[in-house]
Amino acid sequence: MWRYPGDRSADYTDINHWVELAKLFERGKFDSMFIADLVGYFDVYGGNVDSALRTASQLPINDPTTLVSAMSVATENLGFGVTAGVFYEHPYTFARRMSSLDHLTNGRVGWNVVTGYLPSALRNMGQQDIPHDKRYDYADEYLEVLYKLWEGSWEDDAVVKDKANDVYADPTKVHEINHHGEYFDVPGIHLCEPSPQRTPVIFQAGTSPRGIKFAAENAEAIFVTGPTPELVAPQVKKVRDALEAAGRGRYDARIFMMLTAITANTKQEAWDKYHDYERYASTEGALTLYSGWIGTDLSKYDLDQPLDGIDSNAIQSTAANMQKVTGDDGRRWTVRDIAVRRAIGGNSPVVVGSGEQVADELQRIAELTDVDGFNLAYVTNPGTFEDIIDYVVPILQERGVYQTEYTPGTLRNKLFGKGDYLNPNHRGYRYKVSK
């Protein structure tokens, strides 16, 4: 949608664009700004990267962590969830990057843990494609190293700043982690003193059986997605059940459903806007993304046949959901339906209506699915967000279901109201240094 008049997506290389976007989100009292990321590129559709380049399908793309410091200076409360894959950077150096951001944002940073699904990323890192579930085994140890560094290396009072005796940090209170595992050997200490949250808020989006287990043990904010709320509801229940199975409370993680909202002053104006968007939406771009998401080249499919028999090594939940979805007539969606209907909204429900109608639907979906909130995708940037803030947020605030002021403190405290550090029943807490 970068071609749409007024869309600023192509300004992604301008830091002022990101700063203004962060200010907009804070004006709307959003909890956090979630920035997706890829190290690879979409080259499944047509067997090459040409379509991704032509349609700007998440390419080109910059490193999202470089944006956070500037945006945090321009805001006081907005959180920042940045995506980073476990296969593309050693945990020792990544631990320092996230601790640095946690310091510089005063504890407003979160990390969206991804195991990756694009073969192009691993190929360009000199690695082989890894079976889906095996990626999570690797991620388990990656998180173990990070927890040991963030939670177990420096004691809370290790930094004394004793000028009289020339002691900044007490060496007896800084400990080597001595990690020796299947994938990593990290014997030493963390490079950073304890940051406001120590461990950043952990975001995760795995909804395969193995992904849900990983999320239940590690995540504090979990993203779910699906083409309809009815398909999302059982996902949410599985996640809540898994949280309990992992020894946590059913609501110890916030669950956010991806959703696209198109709104205006009236229902007719909103639908006029939707149809205007359709003129610019790229069906080739949609098929390029879907091919990468499900690991199957949709250019080889008859446009009028449903998707069948896809055993994905990519995003398994997307592949499964798209083989189930049907239209209002009960007919299963074809490849053409995916291209046309999902060129706007991607793999999420699209809600169109006045501010009040969208607010009604958000509340209905929250009740139906038991999600805690929404991961709002955009059609145009920043237009979609401006419309939601102007037309929908005030109505939700009037109904008492949306915050009018931020909770003080770190991102973790804003989300849960229970302080800055990991919940004692979280997996990472067990690595906390004992005095």
TrEMBL record:
Keyword Flavoprotein: yes
Lineage top rank: taxon: Bacteria
Residue ranges of domain Luciferase-like in the record: 11-368
GO molecular function: monooxygenase activity
InterPro entries: Diverse_substr_monoxygenases, Luciferase-like_dom, Luciferase-like_sf, NTA_MOA
Enzyme Commission number, as recorded: 1.14.-.-
Pfam families named in the record: Bac_luciferase
The entry's keywords: Flavoprotein, FMN, Monooxygenase, Oxidoreductase
PANTHER family, sorted: ALKANESULFONATE MONOOXYGENASE-RELATED, C2H2 FINGER DOMAIN TRANSCRIPTION FACTOR (EUROFUNG)-RELATED
Family listed: Belongs to the NtaA/SnaA/DszA monooxygenase family.
Protein name: NtaA/DmoA family FMN-dependent monooxygenase
